[in-house]
Design goal:
The chain contains 16 helices and 2 strands. The chain is mainly α and about 500 residues long. The protein has 2 domains: about 45 residues; about 400 residues, Orthogonal Bundle (Ammonium transporter fold), CATH 1.10.3430. It has a two-stranded antiparallel ribbon with strand order 1-2.
Length: about 500
């Protein structure tokens, strides 16, 4: 401090500091001005071009003489530059969630299975990318029938944009690949510590290649049957059901098929959960997931031009997560007399999962109630698994399965009736989504129940069949000797912490 004061008494150093600081401030101001100018230019061009390409604008243009044969082919579909870039940025954010998942799972696991968690996350991502390119995307987002798509295999014959979104087709594909990857990663969390690596590869093909895209088509496909429920269609804005319920119930099936880890003693037998090996890593991983959720939810607008919608979704996402963390913290303390960091992390994740479905249609106050209630649902779901003697080391089913169901139902309760489906330019208000607490009756709630039961129940049954089929091959669960030695040493040739002798 003395040296700093002395330096400021030197006129030459003061002038040097003023020049450097002033130059930096001018540079920052110019950067912001350039950013604002480019954003305004792109928005103006995108809005004008979009308006010029609407049917009404096209009809209003003066007729021109018909060209001589051969007829000039029509112009390609309009690509909205701003919305495409927003979708790409959102895709990058969602993809970065893989780092959060790996840190969260590794932190909640034991030291002897850290490499296994990390490598599974990487390989699941790579498998998902190839499968989603080959046929997963075609089955999920291609036109077909109410149950499965049949278009765009190997990304062949793709148009300029996906549907009427105005988003470049490959940007939309990348965004949806990141979602598919998230579902696959959720599954592995409940199977940590005793799942063989070959078994993981086999069931990952089933999750990314078959279960996720087929059942996702029911809700998100262009002709999915859940879109045609009357009098109210099923809605899932960013995937409480399509991503989280599917991933959570596959995880539950895997945990049941595997059985508990060796040495796992449940509360009703006088034991309790095995302790995480590094809550620092797990907590940072959880916060990375929270950050990535700003691509997951606001990015699902597919439109940077829907500025009110993006802002509303981002704010609702934040409030639900904050309420979930506090609700879990204060719900657990009277039971354990411990300010529990692990429960708090799962609390804000529960809030994030639950708000993912209704985030576009609910108010900030509704988001707080949804997030807080989801955290309690999560804690009670953990108790249920403990009572049933199902070993889920990271809480994959309580966070993603149970809270995915709850969040989807909450749309039928808390939707304010102010907004309809999102469009490239903003919310469509000609047909709004209204929940029970806002005078909408039970129609929307019934639609949400149907979607939950149809997707969640079907996925769980087929996932059980798949997991027991993989188990029959002898690859799903590692041998007893291998589990005692530790997955890292047994399957990956070493420990993530070679200087430690602990397991």
């Amino acid at each position: 401090m003395k040296r700093l004061i002395a330096a400021f008494h030197d006129p030459d150093r003061r002038r040097l500091f003023g020049a450097l600081f002033g130059g930096k401030m001018i540079g920052i101001a110019l950067l912001f001005a350039a950013y604002g100018g480019v954003s305004t230019y792109l928005e103006t061009r995108s809005t004008t071009a979009w308006a010029d390409n609407t049917p009404a604008a096209t009809a209003a243009k003066p007729a021109t003489p018909a060209p001589a044969a051969p007829v000039t082919p029509p112009n390609p579909p309009f690509v909205n530059r701003l919305n495409t870039m927003w979708t790409l940025v959102a895709a990058f954010l969602v993809f970065f969630m893989q780092a959060g998942f790996m840190m969260l799972e590794a932190g909640f696991a034991r030291t002897r299975e850290t490499i296994n968690v990390l490598l599974e996350g990487i390989v699941d991502t790579c498998l998902c990318g190839i499968l989603f390119w080959a046929f997963g995307f075609a089955w999920m987002f291609g036109a077909g029938n109410g149950f499965i798509g049949n278009q765009y295999y190997f990304l062949q014959g793709i148009p300029e944009t996906y549907g009427t979104s105005g988003v470049a087709f490959l940007a939309f594909w990348l965004f949806q690949f990141a979602f598919a990857d998230t579902c696959s990663t959720i599954t592995s969390g409940a199977m940590v510590g005793r799942c063989g690596f070959v078994g993981d590869l086999i069931y990952s093909v089933g999750v990314s290649g078959f279960l996720y895209p087929i059942f996702g088509h029911w809700a998100w496909g262009p002709d999915g049957w859940l879109n045609n429920i009357h009098p109210a269609a099923f809605h899932d804005f960013a995937g409480s059901t399509v991503v989280h319920t599917i991933g959570g119930f596959i995880a539950l099936a895997g945990a049941i098929a595997l059985g508990p880890r060796l040495g796992r003693k449940f509360k009703r037998d006088g034991g309790g959960p095995m302790l995480p090996h590094d809550l620092t890593v797990a907590t940072v991983g959880g916060l990375i997931l929270w950050f990535g959720w700003y691509g997951f939810n606001p990015g699902s607008t597919l439109s940077a031009m829907d500025m009110q919608g993006c802002a509303r979704v981002a704010a609702n996402t934040t409030l639900a997560a904050a309420a979930g963390a506090l609700a879990a913290l204060f719900f657990i303390y009277p039971r354990t007399r411990i300010w529990d960091a692990g429960a708090t992390v799962n609390g804000f994740l529960a809030g994030l999962v639950a708000i993912t479905c209704p985030c576009y249609w609910v108010s900030p106050w509704g988001s707080i109630l949804i997030g807080a209630s989801a955290a309690i649902v999560c804690m009670l779901a953990v108790d249920l698994l403990e009572y049933l003697r199902i070993d889920d080391p990271v809480g994959a089913w309580p966070v993603h399965g149970a809270c995915g169901v709850w969040g989807t139902l909450c749309l039928g309760l808390f939707a304010t009736g102010e907004y309809g489906a999102p469009t490239p330019l903003g919310a469509d208000t000609s047909s709004v989504v209204k929940g029970f607490f806002y005078g909408g009756g039970l129609d929307q709630f019934k639609a949400q129940v149907i979607g939950n039961v149809a997707i969640g129940g079907s996925v769980f049954i087929l996932a059980l069949i798949m997991m027991y089929a993989v188990k029959a091959t002898g690859t799903l669960r590692i041998s007893k000797a291998g589990e005692i030695e530790g997955l890292d040493n047994h399957e990956h040739g070493g420990s993530a912490y070679p200087e430690l002798n602990t397991r």
